[in-house]
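Re: the 567-residue chain
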Amino acid sequence: MRFALALCFLLAPSTALAGDGYSAGGIDRELRRIVDGKGETDPIAGAALAVMVGDRLVYSGAAGCAEFKSETDGKCARPLRATSKLRVASVSKMVIAMALARLIDEGAVDLDRAASDYLGWPLSNPAFPDRPITVRHLLSHRSSVRDPEEYWVAAPREFRWLFVGDAPPFAAAADDVDLGPGAWFQYANLNYGILAAVIEGATQRRFDLVMGERLFRPTKLDIGFNWSGVSPKARRDGAALYERTDAGWRPLVDPPEVLAGDLPFFLAEESVDRAAYLGAYRPGDNPTLFSPQGGQRASVIDLAELVRQLRNAEFLTQPSWRFDEKTPNGDSEEGFFRAFGLGVQTVDGNAALLAGRSLIGHPGEAYRLFSGARLLKAKPSSGRPHDVAIAFAATGVAPQPAKGAHPTFNAVKERLMRLAFKISDASQPDHPSNGAEPRPFDETAAAMNDVEGALLASKASGRPVLLVLGGNWCHDSRGLAAKFASAPLDAIIDRGFHLVFVDVGNRDRNLDVAKRFGVETLLGTPTILIVSPDGVLLNPDSVHDWRMADSRSMSDAIDYFSAYAAD
């Protein structure tokens, strides 16, 4: 079980992306649209995005503000950049898992050993006293630990006192399901506070210092928890997290006085001499000082570099838990979590987003920030010869943003992910913009399930469903797919529809999809069905008009599909 991080990537300039219509300037403008609230989402403070294809950074960019001039002035004192370090929230958990992987390789930590052995005090759920809580249970959120109202303590209080008293933070026993250690999945931030204490117990070093020594410095990343170990310049150039107020923007995390500091930031009672406290700190006293559950400061470029390393860490990424629809085995949080490994979430796509693709990585959400670090592994048979690493951060997001087409992504995150895949797809050598002909029809797909998923997404977004019934053998089916992937039609399709390609073979497969919407016979391929969110066929008189799609002009396609696209 070897896990080695080695960052050897090529920094490609973000001024030129592969493919027509995919210039960095165009992507920058799309980011600005997201920040300005043009489209389906509200205005936000800032957005940053980085995309790596293989070992190349093919795009990095940002829009919005790292710092506003004042709480009532909407102008930037400093712009947000892709290199700006900021608090990335729960993506930090994935980073802790990577550091623990190194300690496991060294033999300093055992995944299946009781955490108590490293803590120096008993960690046990009183409802399940005979079932030890292991490092594996903590990493995979199957520990039976539950989040109290506050899952941290301020200096000089000690961490262990979170677990004493009349209401310790553990699941109670239940009659109908097993909620004990190793069984039920329930996401809990406190799991990673305990893991930070495990790291301190195993190394007899302060958590933030171990992270720098074992992970960040060896990989030459200028990052750290609560600014520990981050260079003064990178800290000064960091970004605050904001919330929108009636008057303007109010900083919630990392205002200018924190960015100008020289000590790591941590919560402490007013009487505490911070420098003296850190100087006298004993490992295990209070590892929550450095916010292990979410206090990593890093840029989106840093996160893309880190998440790319998961390709070499199957023991972390292999799901330890998958949601069971029939037999309850965890809290999926309304479908947000469907599979989880050791500090790493797996996200399977649906028809409306990431169809046929699975991502690994971790999301982040706190203080009006939404972030993510995701890896799409290479699949040469699908025209994707290289891994794709994506990292994004959106600051100043509304408290309850609109839902996206996939339960793991709200509308803001979905827009950033779609933009990232537009970049990565254009950067793959087999993308149509690079001379390759698309082959999007999957004969193994569960077509009706994909249609159902698209209809659900359509009801949420108001965008109609666009069904293309065809096959990879068909020249005109491929020709229409190529038009869909080319500017400017690609933007119309992306923003205006939920697109599903349905493989109908030689008009002998998945014909029930067409019949569902009243089309009894396919005269040829491709056949185009445009369906309202209520399931009504919108183009009954022209479903067969695109059988010669490859010969039709781009202007014909733009006129036709624009007429049905959502505004």
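The chain has 17 helices and 20 strands.
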